[in-house]
Amino acid sequence: MSDVDSLSSSSELTVGDEIPRSLDKIASLVDQRIQDLFEYETLRWSSLDESFTRPLTDLMNFALAGGKRLRPAFCYWAYVATGGEDPEMNVLDAAAALELLHCFALIHDDVMDDSPFRRGSASIHSQYSTYHQGLELSGDPQRFGDAVAILIGDLAFVYADRLLEAAPLKARQIFSELRLEVNFGQYLDVVGTARRSYDAEFAAKVAIYKSGKYTVERPLHLGAALAGAKDSDYSHLSLFGIPLGEAFQLRDDVLGIFGESDKTGKPVGDDLREGKPTLLYALAHDRANERERELLDELFGRENLDAKEVETLQEVFVATGSLALVENRIEELTELAITELRLGGFDPIATKELESLAEYIGRRRS
Predict the structure, then answer these.
(1) Contact status, residue 20 vs residue 356, Cβ threshold 8 Å
(2) Could you give the angle at which helices 200-207 and 279-287 cross, rounded to 10 degrees?
(3) Considering only CA atoms, which of 312, 322, 329, 315 is closest in space to residue 281?
(4) Which PROSITE patterns does the record cross-reference, listed alphabetically (predicted)?
(5) DSSP 228
(6) In sequence order, which residues have a C-beta less than 8 Å from that of residue 303 and are 6 or more positions away?
(7) Average pLDDT of the segment spanning 84-91
């Protein structure tokens, strides 16, 4: 029996655990697939020019440095849920492709936001800026770092495609739609940040398209396509995946403002400094009194916010009831998703594991 087979046949039900145990199992398989890919590619390209070793190694290390592998898990359990049997390498390839696409999005996102840290370490563009300075190369270190990071992100994008070359047409079509959605969602995020004027409806749209659909719904669809699922299965998976994906992004928004940096891997308050278009902010601005609105207008989006000013904004989100409303919304969306999942008529073991993932998303703290 293969490692992939054992996930289905001997899965431990995990509702109530802090991190679902099956998530760790899937993560280890996906990590090994990514490591095998890049070890081979590094050997292949370094034989042409030794300088190719560094970006490939850095991309592999970035991919393996952290992350919970939620997208691969949703892909795998949707495969099982919709009747997939005897999983072959194409399931792992699709799972690894989702993770590499996530790396592409994170690396480019850090460039756009000029974020110095990711997953507790220097972001890719920061690493290469430091590398440029250390060797006293010509040109601007930041521009060099940004350029190399964009290229490394592009490599992740291309390798994600390569992993899906042998997948059925339906799966590749879903993956293409996923990529379009995440790019358009990121565009909404950039535009919303620049406008500094948005409502709850716009914030919800950003949450769904920037992260929600590509974190939950489309990975579910991808797994279903690999299993040869019925058309009705996709609809049921969407009823589960769309609200849960929105809950995922709302939890990310809360952690971006109230999270602990040692758990999130990014400085507390970065979303406040960047002026991110979140439901938290939209609700707070709408419900604020005159003084609270003045504080929001003065501090939100200021790049040099200090710890005290971050704390002041946190207090506004609490005082206006914005935080409580978003927490309630996360709970409602998670419960809705689980209810729809149970109505889907899917494989019972996979249903239980997907329910476990949903509960984890609703309560996670990193």
Answers:
(1) yes
(2) 170
(3) 322
(4) POLYPRENYL_SYNTHASE_1 (PS00723), POLYPRENYL_SYNTHASE_2 (PS00444)
(5) T
(6) 273, 274
(7) 77
Which helix or strand (DSSP H or E) is residue 122 part of? strand 121-122
Measured between its terminal Cα atoms, the distance across the chain in Å is: 34
DSSP character at residue 269: T
CATH classification of 3-363, choosing from 2.40.50.140, 1.10.600.10, 2.130.10.10, 2.60.40.10? 1.10.600.10
The mean pLDDT of the chain is 91
Cα–Cα dist 42/332, whole Å: 46
Confidence at residue 3, expressed as pLDDT on a 0 to 100 scale: 54
Q: Cα–Cα distance between 133 and 123 in angstroms, integer?
A: 16
| pLDDT per residue as tens digits for the range 339-358 | 999 999 999 999 999 999 99
Q: For residue range 290-318, what is the model confidence (pLDDT) as tens digits?
A: 999 999 999 999 989 999 999 999 999 99
* Residue ranges per structural domain of the chain: 3-363
Contact 355, 13 (CB under 8 A): no
Neighbours of 340 (CB within 10 A): 18
List of residues 6+ apart from 142 with CB closer than 8 A = 125, 129
Alpha helices in 82-123 (DSSP H): 89-113
pTM of the model: 0.91
Is 70 in contact with 362 (CB distance < 8 Å)?
no
Distance CA 260, CA 314 (A): 13
Burial class (CB in 10 A: 0-12, 13-18, 19+), 114: middle
Find all residues with CB under 8 Å of 229, minimum gap 6, and list them: 78, 82, 83
67: Cβ–Cβ under 8 A, 6 or more apart, which residues?
99, 102, 119
Q: How many CB atoms lie within 10 A of CB 190?
A: 16
CA 162 to chain centre: 20
Rg (CA), the chain: 21
DSSP state letters, 230-264: -HHHHHHHHHHHHHHHHHHHHHHHHHHHH--HHHH
